[in-house]
Amino acid sequence: MTPTRQQGAALLLLLAVLTLGGMWYMISGLHAASGDFKAANRRHNAAVLAQAKRALVGYVAHQAAVSGENNPGAFLCPEAAANIGTGNEGLAPGNCTLPAVGRLPWKTLGIEKLLDASGEPLWYVVASGWAKPNAATTTVINSNCTSSASAMTCWSGQLTIDGQANAAVALIIAPGQAMSVQASSGCTARNQSRSTPSSTIDPADYLECYSTATSSFATTGASTSFNDQGVKITAAEVLPLIEGAIADRFEREIGRYATSGGLRQVYVGGSWPATQVLPFALSFADPSLAASYQPGVAKDVKGLLPLSYSETTPTSGTACTQSAAEPRCQPLFVAWQSAPAPTFTQPGPIPLGQATLFSSPCSVGTASQISQISCTVLVISILAADMTFRLQATAQNVGMAIRQVNTAATMQNINTAGRTVSGVLNADGTATITLDATIPASAFGSALTHGTCIGLGIPPASIGGALNCFTTTITLPMTVLADHPLLDSSTASSTGWFLRNKWHEVSFYAAAQNLTPGGGGSCSTPPSATPCLVVNYLSNSGSQRGVIAIAGRSLTGAARPNGTRSDWFEDVNASADGSVSNPFTIRAPSLSINRTFNDRIAVIDSN
Amino acid sequence: MGRQRGFTLTELAVVMTIVAFLLASLMYTLSAQTDQRNFLETQKRLEQARELVLSFALINGRLPCPARSTSSGAEVRDTTTGQCTSGGVEDYYGGTLSGGVTGGLLPAVTLGYAQVDPAGFALDAWGNRIRYAVAKSIASGTCSGSFTNPHWVSATNMKANGIACQPGDLLICKSSTGITSSACGGGTNQLMSQSLVVAIAFSTGKNTTSSGGSGADEAANLNGAGNADPVFVYHPLTGSDFGNGEFDDQFTWISVGELYGKLIAAGLLP
């Protein structure tokens, strides 16, 4: 053997050893890495899904607080397929067929276009009742959405996930790589193929094992049929945020920050005295039942918001139609009282040329489901002439409802021009209404014969010669106190969202005693003879004139809606009346650890 | 046996060329891998910055103001007015402030951010300071009723103004072409729908040290002048042959929904 050959062999051996060593290192490294690969992918997906969920839930809550939002609590629709590949990619459409499946509308949410571990944008499913299904329909979402008894779409439309019914209201999905889906239980076979995403994108090429027909989706499945990773958003998760937003919006649009048209301004100024009055509450009961709003229901300083209404729309003058679906429609809740009887008088001195009132018996009746006063006016005059009069009457339950004066209401034989109406709320919840107006000369028609006049009780000495008598009938319908604009639940009203979403069915109202009808119109921090309400932990506790407590979802699992305060509220709120001994509270330190307190307090007015 | 024959010059040249090729490709791969690692690390640090800003908001009920090159990594905020101002110089959007001070830096000390330089400023993986901008104004008509500024950096005002308020200034565009100091110059150039971004944290990328980041798109991210230009540009990486120059800035931002969502869930708002 030559030395040259020996040298060559050594080099070859060295090379072989190095190559083997290198390969061993690489393969062992690869082996270790592949073990972590799946876990790392799942970790990445979990992170982006969590970020997307946080942004989505936050967006829903924020949007619920936005003034003018007619669907507070509604989720966004998935990205409009037509936007894919355009400059508007990532924008959600205004409405969508539910349950809707599509890509996450990242641009509308304000987040970046999040990608899963396989580089795919996230997908998103929203349940029926939780987004706008068409341009004309608004959503109805409140704390009762977690109760099967609520008969609300936001309950019945929820998604079935992994076989569990009503498991979520939305689902965000990392679709993973395209795969050949094998048919299995709940999964349809499909060889997924993904071309450049376009408006014809088919969710089945991205998501596996779902059915929009049955609102069924999956977050787990056999590896031969399923490779998505999803995160659910449940009603219980999103409702506390929506409730917070609603409490805030209530304060701004209806409560203490409302600059006009708020609940605290209903009976102040204008046709009412300058002293503030907050309406009475209706005694607490199930707010979804007509019995809770009917005539005869007791007044209270705490209980249901007095939201009965009487007209098809405020000031329409047409009585609403009562039905089981409209428990608050109570056209005869606010009605004229026969006792004390209405009084029709002619204020003196009588101007020259005007008729002189002889008699004016009034009666209270009902026409077209609307209470009305009719007065038969008999006057003595040379010729038919305008006649100025004052009609004073008492209406029941005005202080247990919210009404506005409508001088333009249709009144028979009363001049529209020059009418003034004023009202004062009495301690028993009635209101004394005074109408100053004129009867037009034309209403009196021709003079009656003297014989008829005498037959009507006019002494013969008061009639004859040039003096004649005239008669007419005037009517004053209850619609002179029309529904307050706050009772308008249509989208035309900026506050209609509250009633439309039935937030009143989870709201408990309380007012300081001295602020209710018959009180002095003010209150001060307890201890005081005229105490304001006490709300523990609120920065200016003890100075609240009126509040509502908004109940979160039922933590006891009781069917909603119901009239059980202990199911609505936790801790001291379950029995609070706002007094020092029974205060409201905005948090319960002993309960918050277990997240078993979900009441919200919104202030209607405070000192 | 005669004298051992050595390698010829040609053989040596071939071997050395091959070795050079191998080394070069190895070095190239290594440097590409380093870049990739730094890119991912920077992304991670920005995410961390984002989380820290949100955590700060949870504790303080507001967003932090940016730091300045003179503030040793702490936010610069007038505690009386609550505004991001000091000595009459406002800084919300970063860039160069009066007196040559660099504004718009992540307030690492205030946030408790870990990777900082000796002066206390947060660093990205390239060793550059992480930038931060925060919304100053409210989009008109978004709050319900009256409101008081500043909103986003004042816990008191944020609570009083309510959660309907949206930011009215920070904007992220896809390109610097056509942008002004207040708009992207057309909806299609907007990466984000308007009124959605409350804070931005970004890295100026690797080229900050090499080329200085002079591309038009990158320049748009450093021209805030404190309170003058809230319009930023973000798009995927581009090389120097790209129309608006090289772009390697990395972004992360906080949407208005995320901020409110966190604060409502924590019971700080409304």
List the helices and strands and how they pair.
The complex is a heterodimer of chains A (607) and B (270).
Chain A: H1 3-65, E1 100-103, H2 106-109, E2 123-126, H3 153-156, E3 159-161, E4 164-168, E5 170-174, E6 180-181, E7 190-191, E8 216-217, E9 229-233, H4 235-253, E10 281-282, E11 299-300, E12 302-303, E13 335-336, E14 343-345, E15 356-359, E16 362-367, E17 370-381, E18 387-396, E19 403-405, E20 420-425, E21 431-439, H5 441-444, H6 450-455, E22 468-477, E23 481-483, H7 496-500, E24 507-511, E25 535-536, E26 544-550, H8 565-568, E27 584-585, H9 589-592, E28 600-606
Parallel strand pairs in A: 3-8, 25-27
Antiparallel strand pairs in A: 1-2, 2-5, 3-4, 5-9, 6-7, 10-11, 12-24, 13-18, 14-18, 15-17, 16-17, 17-22, 18-21, 19-23, 20-21, 24-26, 26-28
Helix pairs in contact in A: 1-4
Chain B: H1 9-60, E1 85-86, E2 89-90, E3 95-96, E4 102-103, H2 108-111, E5 131-134, H3 155-161, E6 171-173, E7 197-203, H4 207-210, H5 216-219, E8 231-233, E9 250-255, H6 256-265
Parallel strand pairs in B: 6-8
Antiparallel strand pairs in B: 1-2, 3-4, 5-7, 7-9
Task: Provide an overview of this structure.
The complex is a heterodimer of chains A (607) and B (270). Chain A is of the alpha+beta class. Chain A is built from nine helices and 28 strands. In chain A, helix 1 crosses helix 4 (235-253). The longest helix of chain A has 63 residues, at 3-65. The termini of chain A are far apart. Chain B is of the alpha+beta class and 270 residues long. Chain B has six helices and nine strands; from the N terminus they run H-E-E-E-E-H-E-H-E-E-H-H-E-E-H. In chain B, strands 5-7-9 form a three-stranded antiparallel β-sheet. A two-stranded antiparallel ribbon of chain B has the order 1-2. Chain B is elongated, with a radius of gyration of 23 Å. The interface between A and B is medium-sized, with 37 and 32 residues.
